[in-house]
User: Fold this.
Amino acid sequence: MHNSPRNFKHNAHQALQDNTIRSNFRGAMDFLRNKRRAAFPDREDFEQLSAQGAAIKQRCLQKLPQLLEQLEQQCHSNGIQVHWAETAQQANQIVQQLITDRGGRSAVKGKSMVTEEIGLTDHLNQFGIDCIESDMGEYIVQLAKEIPSHIIMPAIHKNAEQIGHLFADKIPNVNYTTDVDRLINTGREQLRQHFYGADVGISGVNFAIAETGTLCLVENEGNGRMTTTVPNLHIAVTGIEKVVEFLADIPPLLKLLTRSATGQAITTYVNMITRPRQDDERDGPKEVHLVLLDNGRSQAFADDELRKTLQCIRCGACMNYCPVYTRIGGHAYGTVYPGPIGQIFTPHQLGLEQTKDLPTASSLCGACEEVCPVKIPIPKLLQRLRVESNKPSLRVKTENSDRTEPVVMHGEGSARRRLEALLWRVWAGICSRPALYRTTSWAVTRGRQLIPNWKNGWTQSRTLPKPASKPLHERLKNRIHS
Amino acid sequence: MQTAIKHYPSKPKKVYLYATCLVDNFAPQSGLDAIALLEREGIEIIYPQGQTCCGQPAYNSGYAEQAQQVAIHQIAQFPQPWPIVVLSGSCGGMLRKHYPTLLPDSPEVAAFSERIYEFSEFLVHVLKIKLEDNGHPERVALHTSCAGRREMGIREPGVQLLHQLNNVMLVEQAYESECCGFGGSFSVKHADISSAMLEDKTRHLREADIDLYVSADWGCMLNLNGAFEHQQQTLRGIHLASYLLQRTQAEPEPIDNA
Assistant:
């Protein structure tokens, strides 16, 4: 597997040949779908709750600039220091500088997709800072020197046998087993040591509440609480779209998030972090920092339709239900966020040129939109990205320089092929002129024996469809209408 | 995806038929059978000769401008206020759900989209059809296209119609709601993934141990029947209109889907 969306087609091809990947993902997706289905037994209830969730996220996105300022002020008055990062590189530097300035050498990290997005662990390693993943799935992935294949279940591409072998190979004095409880215990024992010694705990954020300056973080293993309470320094990193306006916005969003992700009514741990340790308190970090990351989000924000991408609460239900993701698994995408949400989110980070195979890698079946807890119209957004990919590059000059900037998205127009564009123009000409359409139809049906049996993508698993001997409109030509 | 609550009119005297370009060029018998069935119910069918394609292929491929051009042409072919019965859930979704986004702020387009009914939806909710089954006992599966299911909500009407047939045993195939892998240009641009989805879908249908499957979408059926032929399997699907007509005729006639 190559870690770039440029290799998507190659990666997908490889993954489809791999029976272990296909059966691991099919089994895991069945499991997660059943969990979610049991958590939302009533379709109407889900529709109501998700409409509420969508409305909250839309309202908060509409006020995003004000809410971010409010969040910063509230955090500041609570004693949480806020940092702004426009790019992944800036975010990495901020985190590394905070650690280096305090003489830190070792970090534990809670499960966080945004730190995967910026490649934080590699960056810290370059500066001599160890960074251990404390979520069990992430720990497994890190041990195997891989990347997560799912945003909620990072190691879902592995089965118990594979994890048993990995632990036996990589951890001293551990014997091979497929007993899941024993595997988990091995992981816990290893991680516990790291918590004691870490100089800094790094986490993501599920919701940042502007009203109170609170960071809300959900998790099941307790590693999130350990990460954010044991070390003296806690650094939270999050995308700017995670801000919500009110504390009261949290309950409906939490209900939707945990039920959609793992089918749980609530996670084992819900952390609400509002300030560092006070003088009269016995535990908690002495310093809390929040890094707010843009990294392409403001490009999506600038367009009313594309802005809906930012409604995402990262539950992963879209991938669980996606027939493409289920077949090829998460690594094939070559992106940090795989599956449908990755297909609409990543183009804003990497540009459409690198990601041009992602918008087309969908049959637009709509399974993702059907289960999305905040009603993101993913198929419509994929269709929109196809428009952006194929449009003739119209570029506008910026005010102060001759440099040209894309109108809507970086890399727009990069998938446009002259021949394809020409074919669609011809097609539209035929389909909007009945006489021409009928002539074409006549030629295709009368010449049906002459159509060569082209070998192409279609014929690798189906025969070419054969036109009828005479089209319907000809058979109905003499109908008399009153 | 919320399907807006649709208010159905009482039984009209006349309807337009929107056959779709696939029925027109690949499966005209489905169109003839739909007409025969609707006429038997006392409906007069108007078939505008100027209709072509709904524009979905261009729309889904990211060529919105070309889709607009074709959409404007289709709308002009249906000037009277009669309901428009569409022989495909997928094209129905294009005409009802996507036309108003493709051509926004137009009362004319909105009114056109309001008049769109997919065939099985029309039979159940507008005609409230009663079917009498004259066929032999058979095991049948229903394949509903993704757009038909999620944009038009036509799985339920399809099931209702098949349940009215006393000798038909409706069997639910595994992963019934999962996509067959067609998706228009997706099946060519991402042929490997599409084929993997198709292989699973055809296997699930075969394993359902059915005599045939029924669908209201020729897009999926060209994909599925083409795959069965490629696999040298005998299982085939036929359009719901043909199946209903065949089962409810006094003397069942063999169906020609050429």
User: Anything to note?
Assistant: The radius of gyration of chain B is 18 Å. The mean pLDDT of chain B is 95. The beta strands of chain B are 14-18, 44-46, 84-86, 116-118, 138-143, 168-170, 212-215, 237-239.
